[in-house]
Structures are given as C-alpha cells and as structure tokens.
Write a structure and sequence with these properties.
The structure holds 2 protein chains of 2 kinds. Chain A is an alpha/beta fold. Chain A has 19 helices and 21 strands. In chain B, the strands form 2 sheets. An 8-stranded mixed β-sheet of chain B has the order 2-1-3-4-8-7-10-9, with helices on both faces. Chain B has a two-stranded antiparallel sheet with strand order 5-6. Bound molecules: thiamine diphosphate and iron/sulfur cluster. Iron/sulfur cluster binds next to loops of chain B.
Chain lengths: ~575, ~280
C-alpha cells in the first residue's frame, strides 16, 4: 500500500505554527517522501490564526489533498477551524491539554499532550512546545528522530550550542512522552521510497532559481505579498552569481529598471502581485512598441484593490492579456506546478528574447507559497535563447525595427559600434524615428508586432499538457496552479469509469488554437474550473470557440480540491447522459 | 610616440532627424550645449545612452547620434538606472521637462539622488507643459494663467535646487539655455562628476511661456568663493528665489550605486562559488 498522509498544524500566528510545519515538511522530504504543502496566512503580522498543511506520499503528489489524517492543534481556535476536515475513519487529533479540552467526535482519534507544561517544566522555555510536538509526531508516526535532530542543528546552529541542545532536548521530551500514549491509529511513515535527489522548493523559490538559470542578472521589485519572497530569495542568491536586486520606490520604477536593463543587454525581471501589476501596465505597452524583451511575474492574490493579500485567486488574467492601451500584443503564460515554475520562467525568458516582447507570467499565492519535492533541475532541459543581434552587414545604415519575413528585427546593444538607435515609445519607422503621423506605417508596424503571434501559436500548441482520456466525453480545460488538482480529479473520475480528460495550456495568450480545437471537438461537455468569479479564461475561449463551456468557479480565496472537481464531473456526466435520453433525435 | 589627436566636432553628434521644436525654443540651446560637451569629452556615440521622458524636451535623444531611449512620461530615472546597472561603463544622460521630472516623475527623484548612480540628469525647465500646450507646471509661479488655470494658478512653485540638495544628490547645478558657453561648462562638469549629477536648465518655451525678458535680469553667477561642499551654503543660494543662480551649487562625491553593487557582489561571492549547482545544494 502506498503511503499518503495529510498533516495540518494550526494555532496562533507567531507561536511557531509555520516553523513547525516547515520542519515537519523538510523532515518528511529528507525521510524520502514526496511532499506537497499548503499554507494560508493570517493577514496580521503577529497573532491571528495560522496553519500549515503538508501531504506526504511515496507517489508523485498532485494536490494538497482533502481530508486530514493528522491535525496538530495548538489551541482551541485551531481545533474549531479545522476539526471538520479531519478524516472520520481514523483521523488523529493531537492537542495541547494545557490549552483546551475538545469534545469527543465519532471516528476521530484523540491524543492529548501537555505540550505547554512539558516545554515550561522540562525545558524551561514555553516557546519550545512546538519542538516538543515534533518529537511527539516523530515517535507516533515513526519519522526518524535523527532527521529532526539534523534539522534543528542547521536551524539553530547560528544561535549556539546551548540553543541547539535545548531544542534537541525538547524533541526528546516529546518523543519520550509519546511512548506512553496508547496507540489507536494505523498511521506509519518510516522512510519513503522517493529515491533520486530532490530539492524542497516553494513555487516562488523554484521560479527564482529558474530566472537565474535563464541568465537573469538583475531583479527590480517592490515588496508585495505574495511575491516578496522572490525578491528576498534573489537578493540573497543573485549576487553569488554576479547579479543584483534593487528594491525600487514603486512598481512603475521596477518595470522601468527592467526595461532599461534589458535594452542595455542584461536580462532582467520583476515580480509583483495585482496592485503592483496594475501600476505596470503603461510600461508593458512601452515594452511592446519599443520591442524590449522583458519578464513580468504576477503572483496573483485576491483582488480587486488591496483585496485579500494572503489568499489565492486567478483573477488577473484579463489584466495580463488586455492591460494597457492600444493594440498591445504580449505573451501571457501561467505556471502550473512548483517544478514548472523553474522551467516555465526559463521559457518565459526565452520567449521574451526570441520575440522581443514582454512576457507576463502568472503564478498565485497557492503555488508561490507551497513547497514540494522536485527533482534537481536539469539545466539542459530548456536551452537558453538570446535575442537576435545584428550581423556586421546589418549595421551599415542600421534599421532597428526593420520589417522582416518573421517580424523579428535585429536588436543592437549599447556599446555596439554602429548600432545606435532610439528605443521609441512613439510609433516609429524601421529606423526608430518617430512616425506619429504616418498612417500606413502604423498599420504596417502593428501588423509586424502582432505578426509574431504566428510562431507563438505553434509554441503554445507544443506546450499543452493532456491528462486522462485524450478524446473524452467530458473535457476539462484548466490553467495555472490548478493543474495537479485537476489531474488528480481526472484520475479519480477515470477510476470511477467516467470518460474524462484534461487539457492544460501553459501559454494562455496567444492561445494554442489547434490543440484546443482538437480537444474540444468530440466532447459532450467541457468544464472550465477557475479560481475567480466570472470565468476569465472561459470568456477568452468563448471569443474563439462557439462552444457552450461549463464554468466551475470558486471565489473564496482558496484553491480547488480534487473532490470539488470530481463532484462537478459527476454532475455534468449525469446531465449529459440524461439529456441524451430525453432528446432522442434532433430533427 | 606621437599620435594625431582625433578631432571630434559637435556636428558629429547630429542626426538626420531635425528638431521639431518651435524656432526660438530654449531646448535648442540645451541641445547645442550637449553637442559641445560630448565633443569636448570625446564621448563615443556607441557608449552613450540618452534616456528621455515625454514632452517637447523628451524628443532630445532623437537628435543625438548615440543610443537613446524615449521612454514614458515621468519615467526617465528608472529606465536610466536600469541601463546603468546593466552596463556601468556606459555614459548615461537623462533628459526631461519640469512636468516630466517634478510632477508625474517626482517620486523617482529622491531615490535616484540617494542611490547616487553615476549619471547626469538634465531638466529643461520652462515652467510650463510645452507639449500639451502651456498648462501650469510644478515650477510655474503662483498666478500663472493658462488653459487649466484661467483664473491664475493658486499653487506655489517647487524649488528644484533646494529639493535636490535635500534629497542628497551629490551634484546640483543650474544653467540657462541662453548662455550656451556657461551651460556647456556646467554640463561637462556634471557628466564628469562620478555620481548622480542634477542640472536644472532654465529653458524658455517661446510659444507658451516666453520668459526671455524676465529671466535674464535675475541671473546671477554662483560666487567664485562659494564652497560647493558646504550643503548649508548651497541651501542658502537655492532658497534665494529672488535670483536665478547659475553654476554648481553643490558637489560632494561619494561612492556610486554601481560601486556599492559590486561590493555586495564581492561580499556574496566570498562565501559561495558562483554556480547555480551550489545554490541548489542549499535546498536539499
Ligand atoms: C501618463 C501620461 N500623462 C499625460 C501625458 C501627456 N503629456 C505629454 S507631455 C506632458 C507634459 C509636458 O511638460 P514637460 O514635462 O514640462 O515637458 P515640455 O513639453 O515642457 O518639455 C503631458 C502632460 C502623457 N504623455 N503621459
Ligand atoms: S512648445 Fe514650447 S517647449 Fe515646446 S518646442 Fe515649442 S517653444 Fe519649445
């Protein structure tokens, strides 16, 4: 039987909930399991309710899961909030007996541990109660203690021997106490069989590493949840590779620095969330008309306005596709998994370089902040592409925006003899001289800029993923971070006998028309699940396809669970079949 | 060894694009002085990037044989910073109008000043919005009457020099487009200054705010004995709004942003080999 368990830790923010979750995650990863975490944060800096969920398994994990196998609740609020998610056929609740006494629920196994008093009486530091709880988990579920000890040494090593020892003691106090708990559950982990070397990365970390691998050497950004950790990660790591991070005065400046840098030959990136992305739209237009390769990441959160900063949503697709004035072609990609964050951002840099246009990369809080085990990235999987530079003979009478058969012009870099030109935000001629009154030139230039889409459609078709039945009765078209959840739902539905398949494009604009068409044809119904209110992708698809897509929208600041998608598949399947019976023949 | 010095003339920096400015516009004087500076300093066109915003003044890069970037209204400084960080060996000159710099782009100035990248920032200050036909700008005097202020402006003008000194610019100067020789000298000093050099150039808009008669009587040269490192004295001159002070008010070099960046990189590399694989190892 494969191991597959979901743990959740809940309590007061600032109480060590997140660090407990992180350490449990790393321990499970090092013990050889695949992991998949899920975090929701309080909006408050200190206090407020926090929780951290980790799923561990021997097999590739596609979603955060649904039912909890173990809930570690530090206080009553955590119990109240999460008990309904605990499996009623043997799920375990571990609670702090010093904090509260929960009522007994049918089917749930209760292990009370005096976490606070063990920490205060045996260690003398109340805050070590979360380490005590890790000891309890380690003993109960057979996670090797040694793995936790190593983690504590790494985590607290800088604070000195004494602190490390106190924490290791706390771990043992927990493990010791757990020995006397009469076991009723059957949860057992031991060591996993994941094999091969893996890294434990969040989506944001994976993306940042991918940016470095793409050759990005300058990052400019302004702090905003849930994108800030990309900036902080790169601020630490980029200088090691010779790059740098500037924290600019606002997001307009951030994207301005990116355009200036890229124009001058250094690949650059910015990452933000909705509010910052809104501010950047004017510059996206500049990057389009001046044809400057640029990568803009939007780690989406709930909008509009300041919205719900720590919660997830897929609400910025319209802005990504249409934001800005005028006829303004850009590429919009959506990242789908922690691993895809690495290769996806590499593709984004490549596309921006190849087509000399801005690429907007959509991630979201759910993906950016969750951690997963990913195989050590293969630096050769996505070969790095650089922009087309002028040949020597092109530099005589250099025309930066020359009309070419593939609509891509040579781009010189300052410092290049003979390559001087003005990157021009006014409509311009082939040289780059303003042509603000030349009507024919405007059409020609607009055609040139949109003409790049021809090739991009092809690439978009190649970057489509298909899961389940490739010619299904019920199709699902999803985008972005829902990939794994949808894939898992398809597997479940298929195992129940449904004819289901999913198509997941990585480039959302311009769209992989051929692949979409092929997939849609022959289906009886197509469901489009989106974590937004109106169905933004569905709306875009309706413009291209006269098809009655069925929307599944979730708009509570949380991602889908596989179960929710399975439920929809079953509902739609029932409808498809009954309507077939009730309309026997079309006359 | 004797080499024949290569003669570089201001003419060589002219492009085929003819300035679209109104005859008599102050911006011609600024452009002429720029040609002279570049020739005097023998700046290689391939190593020069002129970044501009939007406005009449924003058209400047098109008239200079070099690399250029005609960006967005108010966004000269972020773009210029990006260029400089990408390649610190480039000569970077930012140009824009008083609306471009002090109104819509005003939020960027303090940060450019305190970071101190090695670049020159020229404001062509005509105290009006030339391109949009003469509305009042942040440096227009109270009472200024135009399309959007038919009853006269009720706002006080800002003080560019005092502002830049306060923000920590390491070079602050002022010139007049009608005094090209002095302006050439000033801008040359600004370009040679290692750090963020701000030059406010009074450059009249002959069409919408013709100040050719009112400015000259107020012009005064910064006195010979003025100590350019003395910030308090520089403020004193800047705050004297009766006069239009010409010359360098403040100059006090300090490490540039690019130098500080390379120190950070050295520090980071001291402890880690510059390889992505080494970073991967931190996450296993
Ligand atoms: C975001 C934005 N808002 C408004 C404008 C319109 N606009 C163009 S130039 C300008 C003001 C120009 O005044 P100034 O910067 O002083 O330059 P000048 O034309 O006087 O040289 C304005 C408001 C614009 N181009 N972009
Ligand atoms: S409108 Fe004024 S600033 Fe613009 S070109 Fe004419 S004179 Fe110069």
């Amino acid at each position: 039987m494969t191991t597959d368990y979901v743990f959740r830790v809940g309590g007061e923010g600032g109480e060590g909930v997140i660090s407990t979750g992180e350490m449990l995650t790393l321990a499970l990863a090092r013990a050889g399991f695949q992991i998949y975490t899920f975090r929701t944060y309080p909006a408050e800096i200190k206090g407020g309710h926090a929780n951290y969920q980790v799923r561990a398994s021997d097999k590739l994990l596609l979603s955060q899961g649904h039912w909890l196998d173990v809930l570690l609740a530090f206080n009553e609020e955590a119990y109240q909030k999460h008990i309904q998610d605990v499996r009623r056929n043997g799920g375990v609740l571990i609670y702090d007996t010093d904090s509260y006494q929960p009522p007994i629920l049918e089917g749930v196994i209760y292990y009370g541990v005096p976490l606070t008093s063990l920490a205060t009486e045996k260690i003398g530091i109340k805050l070590t109660k979360n380490i005590v709880s890790l000891g309890v988990l380690a003993h109960l579920f057979d996670i090797p203690l040694k793995v936790f000890e190593d983690l504590l040494k790494e985590r607290f090593g800088r604070k000195g021997e004494v602190v490390v020892q106190k924490n290791i003691d706390a771990l043992h106090v927990g493990a010791e106490y757990a020995k006397q708990i009469p076991r009723q559950d059957r949860i057992q982990l031991g060591s996993g069989s994941r094999g091969a070397k893996h890294l434990v990365l969040s989506g944001n970390e994976s993306l940042a590493l991918g940016a470095i691998a793409s050759g990005c050497r300058l990052y400019a950004g302004y702090p905003i949840t849930p994108a800030t950790d990309i900036m902080e990660f790169l601020a630490r790591e980029l200088p090691k590779i010779g790059g740098f991070v500037v924290q600019t005065e606002d997001e307009i400046s951030a994207i301005g620095v990116v355009l200036g840098s890229s124009y001058a030959g250094k690949k650059a990136m910015t990452a933000t969330s909705g509010p910052g992305f809104s501010l950047m739209t004017e510059m996206i237009g500049l990057a389009v008309v001046a044809e400057i390769p640029s990568v803009i990441v939007d780690v989406q959160r709930v909008g509009p306005s300041t919205g719900m900063p720590t919660k997830t949503e897929q609400g910025d697709l319209y802005l990504a596709v249409y934001g800005g004035h005028g006829n303004c072609p850009r590429i919009v990609m959506a990242l789908t998994s922690v691993e895809d964050c690495f290769y996806g951002i590499m593709r984004a840099f490549n596309l921006s370089e190849q087509f000399q246009m801005p690429v907007v990369v959509l991630s979201d809080q759910y993906l950016g902040h969750r951690k997963a085990t990913v195989p050590v990235p293969d630096l050769n999987q996505v070969p790095v592409i650089d922009r087309r530079k002028p040949q020597a003979e092109e530099l005589a009478g250099f025309r930066r925006y020359r009309f070419t058969p593939d609509n891509i012009s040579p781009m010189s870099i300052p410092g290049m003899e003979g390559g001087g030109y003005v990157a021009e935000g006014l409509e311009h001629d082939e040289v780059g001289y303003p042509a603000a009154s030349d009507h024919e030139n405007h059409l020609r230039s607009t055609q040139k800029r949109y003409g790049k889409f021809g090739q991009i459609h092809q690439i978009a078709n190649d970057l489509v993923r298909l899961y389940g039945n490739p010619h299904p009765e019920i199709g699902i078209i999803g985008w972005g971070s829902s990939e794994g959840v949808i894939r898992e739902a398809v597997e479940i539905a298929q195992s129940k006998g449904y004819s289901v398949g999913a198509l997941h494009p990585k480039i959302l604009y311009p769209q992989p028309i051929a692949k979409l068409k092929e997939f849609i044809e022959g289906t009886k119904a197509v469901i489009i699940p989106e974590v937004n209110f109106t169905g933004q992708f569905a709306t875009l698809l309706r413009k291209r396809f006269a098809y009655d897509f069925i929307q599944l929208n979730k708009c509570i600041g949380l991602p889908f669970t596989p179960q929710e998608i399975v439920d929809k598949i079953e509902e739609v399947a029932a409808h498809v079949h009954s309507s077939r019976r009730s309309h026997p023949a079309a006359v | 060894m004797s080499t024949v010095p290569v003669e570089v003339t201001p003419q060589q920096y002219k492009t085929e694009e003819h300035p679209i400015w109104c005859p008599g516009c102050g911006d011609f004087g600024v452009l002429g002085s720029l040609y002279n500076c570049l020739a005097g300093l023998k700046v290689k066109p391939k190593d020069l990037v002129v970044v501009s915003g939007i406005g009449c003044s924003g058209r400047t890069p098109g008239f200079i044989k070099s690399y250029g970037f005609h960006s967005l209204h108010g966004r000269v400084l972020p773009v210029a910073l990006g260029v400089k960080l990408a390649n610190p060996s480039l000569e970077v000159i930012g140009v824009g109008g008083d609306g471009d710099g002090f109104a819509i782009g005003g939020g960027h100035i303090p940060h450019a000043a305190r970071r101190n990248p090695d670049m020159t920032y020229l404001i062509m200050d005509n105290s009006t919005y030339g391109l949009t036909k003469g509305q009042y700008s942040p440096t227009s005097p109270a009472g200024y009457q135009a399309g959007s202020t038919p009853y006269g402006s009720i706002e006080q003008p800002l003080n560019p020099l005092a502002m830049l000194i306060a923000y920590g610019a390491s070079f602050v100067g002022q010139g007049y487009s009608g005094k090209p020789r002095e302006l050439t000298e000033l801008v040359t000093q600004a370009i040679e200054h290692k750090g963020f050099a701000f030059v406010n150039v009074i450059s009249p808009c002959i069409t919408f705010n013709n100040t050719y008669k009112v400015v000259p009587p107020r012009l005064k040269e910064v006195p010979q004995e003025h100590d350019v490192k003395n910030r308090a004295k520089a403020f004193e001159l800047a705050l004297d709004t009766q006069s239009v002070w010409l010359g360098v008010l403040y100059q006090n070099p300090r490490p540039t942003f690019e130098q500080e960046v390379s120190h950070v990189i050295e520090k980071a590399q001291a402890s880690s080999p510059p390889r992505l694989e080494a970073i991967f190892a931190e996450f296993s």
